[in-house]
Amino acid sequence: xxxADIIEQFILSAMQEDNTIEISRNSLADxxxxxxxxxxxxxxxxxxxxxxxxxxxxxxxxxxxxxxRISADTSDSTRLIIESVGSELTFRRMSQILxxxxxxxxxxxxxxxxxxxxxSDDALSLPILSTEKxxxxxxxSVLIELISEKEGx
Amino acid sequence: xxxADIIEQFILSAMQEDNTIEISRNSLADxxxxxxxxxxxxxxxxxxxxxxxxxxxxxxxxxxxxxxRISADTSDSTRLIIESVGSELTFRRMSQILxxxxxxxxxxxxxxxxxxxxxSDDALSLPILSTEKxxxxxxxSVLIELISEKEGx
DNA sequence: CTATAATTAGTCAAAGAAAGTCAAACTTAA
DNA sequence: TTAAGTTTGACTTTCTTTGACTAATTATAG
Lengths: 153, 153
What we know:
Two copies of one chain form a homodimer.
Chain A: H1 3-14, E1 20-23, H2 25-32, H3 36-46, E2 53-58, E3 64-69, H4 77-85, H5 91-103, H6 109-118, H7 131-150
Antiparallel strand pairs in A: 1-3, 2-3
Helix pairs in contact in A: 1-3, 2-3, 6-7
The structure holds a DNA duplex.
């Protein structure tokens, strides 16, 4: 049996209760007698966005890795939409999905506008060389939207 | 638990009343049994302009460190933030800015979480070849966040 | 008054404590 | 017999803690 699968199972059962877990990468690697980077491998291949996991981490003293997930038994429309998005998404199609979520009162008008601002063609314009540049661009788009909202367009 | 975080919490709760506090660096370091420069570290990393804090200090007998919280509540201050963002932005810094906007009631907690989800490192993970792929990834992150919100995380 | 001592806070670099990256080596399944 | 998936370890980056040294301000002795 692969160590990667064993670690995956361990994490899964540990977060079964409340869909969240905070681990220490080194301790976990130590516990399973593997390289610390093995933990990263498990996280990258098993606990992905596509599978409904959110990750967060911090280095240095008191560092950690935190994993959150949407509960496995959630079977509402939003979950279906994730699957339907696939690997590519035009702004037009995203807008349609957002508008529907708005109609269903799952998000507010303001929230729709913020997400549209963050993920517009302009905000995500490529080619961009780094994640930080991309984020700076997209975030400014969000801030401008906030000003617009406030000033009533 | 990090001593830096403990000191941060201490200061935060002490200045909760009227958004200001005056401390003695040495007394505080003494109280927490740490190096005085640890106080500077907390100030430099936690009480930054991005987070809405202004600092002032004086050395010598009767010296002090004064911290003031300044609120961002006009469109103008949002414009200033846009300028300060520059051409690159880490997730950590964006989170600080968003947390501040939240404190000043410019955005809701939900809106903060949606934008963080849309522009997280995972969401914008490069190398990605097209805007559509990028958007698909980022939007899934938003949808997962929506489900989490619904589940009352 | 002035020089010196005492009393603060500031700076910076080194050491320590985590997690992240990446490519080479190894395994396994098709 | 490859191609994809897995494992490992050397190296990097980030965050925290500490302490020696510096700078500014006030208090005091002469």
